[in-house]
């Protein structure tokens, strides 16, 4: 079977090109399971939780008796009350016992029969279930590890919280009452947020029955080296001639190693780009240009991951406001995990903490959110409409004339917004340029904001259009000295992108400012400076 890049469900190394998990599994076993830790793997959607959990199950089998369950296999009715849950839990165990020869051999027959006999009792409760589970753990040939995937499936049910409380009680009394050596739960929500959905009142919000859990701090994102190793396997099969290290680094720049996004970019390059005339020469696919095209296709697609992103942005308006300030104004927002909307954004994997500040998790998420914001604003935006009207004069022979784009934007902005106050321009100036630019490059190009250069005074926008790249520094004017420093910064950034020409758009509040566009030469670089 020919292997391929997979973005749906579990990845298997014999079927799919994937990052190898051996190092991660060894860490999980040594740092958590071997030490008898109870912990939760909660990461964003499509972050490889199920793939990791199933791989860990196999990895642990030599040393442990593994009971691996998936709560999405149980119906809502199974969580209606204790008896329904207990019967469903036992029936799930019976299925595992009948299908898994290793489990059947490891578990003492009498102990298992005591468990199944509970179904015939007139009154069954969780404490009786756990007495039977305790005997199974005590008599098993190897320490027992319990894994439960998709714990979110039980998120609205009190019986699951009671189940966690029993696990906690036995964990604390484990020296007197044998119990599971290690318990691993996996899902999107962490346990604290599961309980918030059941008991929203403040008294019970933070009284978690799962405060015994160890902090699961293993990085589940993919590093550049891991992506390169995966691409090396692909290259061995397909002989594309790609520079695997360069391609891996470029993919990482867009994805920050978010597992599903890495696979999605590679999948588009492998399956979709060969059908495009521009990439008829297969050697062009696995390049920075090919990655940019794959990302452009991704921006047009609807996926469960992006649907979830939009849903959470709409649901948590405080989070939306924070992201708008970060994207458009370069505002530095301190990371506070106690702020609920921030905590939820981090839990869903859309934002992260970096040097004490809130930042977007990766460039693709930021591009998608920025497209959402701009699309929403474009419905009644005169700036967007102006860009749409001006569009044709910027395109010649399939190439984009960025000099002319800046000239027209300066002219338009000065006519419409030139007399607005400082606060207005600081808040909306850069947003208006992005709104103006969007319809001009729409369909053939992408743009994104460069996180490394973003602050309240300066933001670089990188435009990819028909194979060409344009670096535009958008900045607030802080005087000549600051401007000269910005010019030097821009030349350094042009070196990084291997460009000889760059652009600077300054929003100047000086009453004596000179409106317009000029070209200067600095070192071996050409800089087009526009002032509004």
CATH superfamily of the largest domain: P-loop containing nucleotide triphosphate hydrolases
> How far apart are the termini?
60 Å
Poorly predicted runs? 200-206
The level of helicity is 40-55%
How large is the radius of gyration? 28 Å
Structural class: alpha/beta
Residue-averaged pLDDT: 88
Give the secondary structure arrangement, pairings included.
Layout (H helix, E strand, L loop, with lengths): L21 H12 L4 E5 L6 H12 L4 E6 L11 H18 L1 H6 L2 H9 L8 H14 L4 E6 L8 H15 L9 E6 L3 H8 L25 H15 L5 H12 L3 H13 L16 H12 L4 H12 L1 H13 L10 H8 L3 E4 L2 E4 L2 H16 L3 H9 L4 E2 L2 E2 L1 H16 L4 H20 L3 E6 L7 E8 L2 E9 L3 H17 L4 E7 L8 E7 L2 E7 L1
Helix pairs in contact: 1-2, 5-6, 6-7, 9-10, 11-12, 17-19
Question: What does this protein look like?
Answer:
It is a single chain. With 532 residues, the protein is of the alpha/beta class. It has four domains: 22-198, P-loop containing nucleotide triphosphate hydrolases (Rossmann fold, 3-Layer(aba) Sandwich), CATH 3.40.50.300; 224-294; 302-380, Arc Repressor Mutant, subunit A, CATH 1.10.10; 381-532, no CATH class. 48% of the residues lie in helices and 15% in strands. It has 20 helices and 14 strands. It has helices spanning 22-33, 49-60, 82-99, 101-106, 109-117, 126-139, 158-172, 191-198, 224-238, 244-255, 259-271, 288-299, 304-315, 317-329, 340-347, 363-378, 382-390, 402-417, 422-441, 480-496, and strands spanning 38-42, 65-70, 144-149, 182-187, 351-354, 357-360, 395-396, 399-400, 445-450, 458-465, 468-476, 501-507, 516-522, 525-531. The strands form four sheets. A six-stranded mixed beta sheet has the order 9-10-11-12-14-13, sandwiched between helices. Strands 1-4-3-2 form a four-stranded parallel beta sheet, with helices on both faces. A hairpin with a 2-residue loop joins strand 5 and strand 6. Helix 9 packs across helix 10. The model is unreliable at 200-206 (pLDDT under 50).
């Amino acid at each position: 079977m020919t292997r391929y890049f997979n973005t749906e469900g579990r990845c298997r190394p014999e079927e799919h090109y994937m990052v190898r998990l051996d190092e991660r599994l060894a860490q999980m076993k040594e740092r958590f399971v071997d030490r008898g830790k109870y912990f939760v793997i909660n990461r964003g959607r499509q972050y490889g939780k199920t793939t990791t959990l199933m791989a860990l199950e196999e990895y642990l089998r030599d040393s442990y008796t593994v009971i691996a369950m998936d709560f999405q296999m149980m119906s809502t009715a199974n969580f209606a009350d204790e008896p329904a849950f207990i019967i469903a839990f036992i029936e799930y165990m019976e299925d595992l016992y009948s299908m898994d020869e290793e489990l059947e051999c490891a578990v003492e027959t009498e102990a298992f029969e005591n468990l199944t006999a509970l179904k015939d009792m007139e009154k069954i409760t969780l404490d009786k279930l756990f007495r039977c589970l305790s005997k199974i753990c005590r008599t098993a040939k190897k320490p027992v590890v319990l894994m439960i995937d998709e714990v979110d499936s039980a998120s609205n049910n009190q019986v699951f919280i009671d189940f966690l409380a029993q696990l906690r009680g036995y964990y604390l009394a484990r020296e007197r009452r044998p119990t599971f050596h290690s318990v691993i739960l996996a899902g999107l929500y962490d346990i604290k947020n599961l309980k918030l959905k059941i008991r929203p009142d403040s008294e019970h919000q933070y009284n978690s029955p799962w405060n015994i859990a160890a902090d699961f701090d293993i990085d589940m994102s993919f590093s550049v080296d891991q992506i390169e190793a995966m691409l090396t396997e692909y290259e061995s099969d397909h002989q594309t001639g790609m520079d695997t290290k360069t391609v891996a680094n470029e993919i990482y720049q867009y994805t920050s190693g978010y597992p599903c996004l890495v696979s999605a970019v590679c999948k588009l390059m492998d399956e979709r780009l060969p059908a495009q005339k521009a990439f008829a020469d297969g050697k062009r696919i696995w390049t920075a240009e090919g990655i940019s095209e794959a990302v452009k296709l991704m921006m047009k697609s609807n996926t469960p991951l992006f649907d979830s992103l939009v849903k959470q942005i709409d649901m948590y308006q405080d989070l939306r406001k924070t992201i708008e300030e970060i994207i458009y104004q370069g505002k530095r927002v301190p990371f506070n995990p106690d702020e609920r909307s921030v905590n939820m954004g981090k839990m869903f994997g859309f934002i992260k903490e970096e040097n004490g500040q809130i930042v977007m998790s990766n460039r693709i998420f930021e591009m998608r959110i920025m497209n959402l914001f701009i699309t929403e604003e474009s419905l009644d935006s005169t700036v967007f409409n102006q860009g749409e009207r001006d569009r044709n004069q910027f395109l010649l022979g399939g190439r984009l004339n960025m000099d002319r784009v800046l000239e027209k934007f300066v002219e338009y902005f000065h006519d419409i917004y030139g007399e607005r106050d400082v606060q207005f321009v600081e808040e909306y100036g850069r947003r208006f340029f992005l709104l103006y630019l969007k319809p001009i490059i729409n369909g053939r190009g992408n743009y994104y904001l460069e996180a490394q250069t973003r602050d309240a005074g300066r933001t670089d926008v990188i435009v990819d259009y028909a194979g060409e790249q344009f670096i535009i520094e958008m900045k607030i004017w802080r005087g000549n000295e600051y401007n000269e420093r910005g010019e030097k910064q821009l030349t350094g950034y042009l070196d990084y992108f291997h460009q000889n020409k760059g652009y600077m758009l300054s929003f100047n509040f000086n009453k004596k400012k000179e409106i317009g566009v000029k070209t200067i030469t600095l070192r071996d670089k050409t800089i087009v400076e526009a002032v509004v």
